[in-house]
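Inputs:
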Amino acid sequence: MLETKDTNERFLTESAATSEDVVEDRELRPKSFADFIGQKRVVDNIELMVNSAKIREKAMDHVLLSGPPGLGKTSLAYLISKMLDVNLHVVSGPAVDKKGDLAAVLTNLTARDILFIDEIHRLPIAVEEILYSAMEDFRLDILIGQGSSARTMKIDLAPFTLIGATTRSGLLSRPLRDRFSMQLHFDFYEVDELNTIVSKNTNKVGVKVSTEARFLIAQMARGTPRIANRILRRVRDYAVVKKIDEMDNTNVESALHMLGIDSFGLDQMDRKILKTINEQYKGGPVGIDALSATLNEDRVTLEEVYEPYLLKIGYIIRSSRGRVISDFGKKYLDKIFGQNHSTTVNITKE
Ligand SMILES: Nc1ncnc2c1ncn2[C@@H]1O[C@H](COP(=O)(O)OP(=O)(O)OP(=O)(O)O)[C@@H](O)[C@H]1O
Ligand SMILES: [Mg+2]
């Protein structure tokens, strides 16, 4: 049986995610396009497609949503299904390991339904192939039998919309990518956009935060709404336990410090990555596999969760021979650990 899984349960620091966080994360999902802050180009295009599909009374065209984790791909897929008032079927790419699994999902779709495939770049190629005719002609071509007795069975499907989400669009095969008539990329959010998200969510999370401190949370959130919400929840916990009526900058700084987030918004693993490249690999270049082995951290997590933001803020650079720390990255280490920081990876702020 196919596992239908909502992969929204991944957080920056997975160990910090409690099941309560996951439930709250869902509650904080935007409920309308107006609630969906930022990503203007993405939202404008989606709104146009949704409205057109409604007027034409047809299934919306297939869309590929790409971008780093926690920027709102899953949230947007939910929002689209709500706006179109159609069913949303969620599957996770790596969980579909047999053609039959996907065929079962596809044949169960009713007209205009949305099939959301999360982490679509991790769909096995043999499974992916049955999507080609499904997406293009709403038809399943299934090969039955082997050798001379083999024949193709064609099954008509209801017209549906495929929404694919990926943190690594570059890993998608060409034939699959080309079948999405719309491909939209999510960028990291601006601080003022995150500030709006934090401000909208303080009440929902159940904490009062001063205007200044809300801005601080937005600045420390690595351009990522999921992280802003995660910090906000820990700020709430801090306020509840310390019996603080309204969290100000100093209180928020203490809560951030407990989370291991420094005054640059980077966390323990970011610092470890930068320090390892700088010291153990003399600034780089270092290949991702070597880095992953040294840090004892999964390669995919490094590539998909940590690296995009470090690249965006220019602390590391990707060259053909591997990752290199930039001058900015070195200056950051000097500021955090002092000019003559030791070769041991010290993860505390001071
Ligand atoms: N544009 C937005 N406006 C308000 N809140 C947002 C927005 N985008 C994301 N969020 C919040 O961030 C959380 C994480 O977003 P979401 O799960 O949609 O990210 P994702 O891109 O699917 O991540 P992943 O790649 O890890 O699956 C949501 O639960 C929602 O609360
Ligand atoms: Mg998601």
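The chain has a mean pLDDT of 90. Flag for discussion at group meeting.
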